[in-house]
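To the team - thymidine-5'-diphosphate complex, inputs and output below.
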Amino acid sequence: MQQSLCRISGNPLIPLIDFGDQPLGNGFLNSTDFEREYFYNMSVGYCQESYMFQLIDQPSPQQMFHANYAFYSSTSKSMEKHFKAFSDSLKDSKYLSTVDPFVIELGCNDGIMLKNFVSSGIRHLGIEPSLNVAKAANSLGVKTISEFFTEECANRIVNEHGQADAFLAANVMCHIPDINDVVRGIKILLKPTGVVMFEDPYLGDVIEKNSYDQIYDEHVYLFSALSIQNLFKDYGLELINVIPQKTHGGSLRYVLAHKGAYTVDSSVDEIISKELRQGLDKAETFEMFKKRVQKSKSDLINLLTTLKGQGKRIVGYAATSKSTTILNYCGIGPDLIEYISDTTPIKHGTFSPGMHIPVRPYEFFKSNPPDYAVLFAWNHAEEIMAKEQEFIASGGKWITHVPEVKVH
Ligand code: TYD
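Output:
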């Protein structure tokens, strides 16, 4: 059944784009599971009151973040660097108490961020619902509990460990349908001088870059400063700073605190004004986005079909969750894309969700370079293009689809 009410305000959502039936973005599967693959209707809506851009319907979190969750954060070197810098910025800030600071991370994955606190001897706790990645974090010495974060969980943590100086999350908050419960939990967990720092793919970048592949089952929301400011203010928490990030093709880091605890940085007013100029407060802006998404789809299908007609070999580079939206929305399967190369061992030998393109180890790509590689991890373009000089030197070409479909 479709949910058509805003998860924040409870008002009816304005329906925006219907991407049709989609499988789980990270649902890489074996051929024996094709028959019982799970699909849901993926469409997005907007709420004029909460400013929240969101999925209308979403599979249950248990379906997505389970004991065999296939995403390990530490597979990317640039993300390792990014989380080191994120951790350093907190350690160097005025926000951590001088005596026994306590840092919590929601969705700590395999410990990519918190391990930087372990190495400094800072008291920490990770909360990670996917058991396999939580185990990986614990094995690094990152203290992690495997469960979903709720108001009830926050009360338990406070009783056991006390309140936190910082509550961190990266690419996690936008995954949580009942975000109101999480914000209630944060309110309980934070010391009077504590801060929330979290980052997620930014709606402003998605609209600007036409990166509609950020829309998939796990991203129940695409946040803006407008929507985050509005969400937290109902709980007495204030947006005090915003810091744009290059990660995930454009993210925004939000810093929030109990109202009045800190002065509000000028970056907050600046980004709100920018979002109003960009029209992120108006449903019409998303109507224009829809037209650009439709054009991107026909451009990509036309390009791949033409190249294939010329006998060219095309593969996908990186079996990302994002690629699932593109492949299923455009109906691109193994007839156009031979295989997808990926460095994550548990994805090897599996097939892409929905369209069932085989996923092969990166070494296979190295020994079988194609004529064209569609860069599904376009957000890591700098890192990838720098390491794939040999592919280019041997005549290979990149295809990207953001901000427009293009051969490089
Ligand atoms: P990411 O853009 O973080 O994925 P998602 O859309 O799922 O958030 O990319 C992670 C995936 O890309 C992961 O399966 C590993 C793969 N990958 C490569 O295969 N090679 C690379 O050089 C990089 C950076 C990622």
